[in-house]
Amino acid sequence: MAVLAILAILMTYLGVNYYLSGMHSYGQGTPSTIPIYVYLLLVGLFVVILLAYKAEKHQKNKKN
């Protein structure tokens, strides 16, 4: 949960200031493209979260 919270804070700072372009964004001009590694990191993060959840669930079942 802490990792997701940090990513949300980074998105509000970097996303609004550099990637979004609109009435409520601070950046001017056309938005820059989002690099492919950002998408790969997000997929990797969700895989790690799912694996951690399954491992924790397995540990709880093993104790019972």
Order of helices and strands: HH
Tell me about the largest β-sheet: none
Residue fraction in strands: under 5%
Number of domains: 2
According to DSSP, the number of beta strands is 0
Which spans of ≥5 residues are poorly predicted at pLDDT below 50? Answer: none
Radius of gyration: 17 Å
Structural class: mainly alpha
Give the end-to-end Cα distance, rounded to a whole number of Å.
25 Å
Task: Output the number of helix runs.
Answer: 2
Helix content bin = over 70%
Arithmetic mean of pLDDT: 79
* Broad shape: elongated
Question: What would your notes on this structure say?
Answer:
There is one protein chain. The protein has 64 residues and is an all-alpha fold. The protein has 2 domains: 1-33, no CATH class; 34-64. Helix content is 72%, strand content 0%. The protein contains 2 helices and no strands. It has helices spanning 2-19, 36-63. It is elongated. It starts with a helix and ends with a helix.
Record keyword descriptors for this entry:
single chain, 64 residues, mainly alpha, 2 helices, elongated
Quick take:
The chain has helices spanning 2-19, 36-63.
SSE layout and pairing:
Elements: H1 2-19, H2 36-63
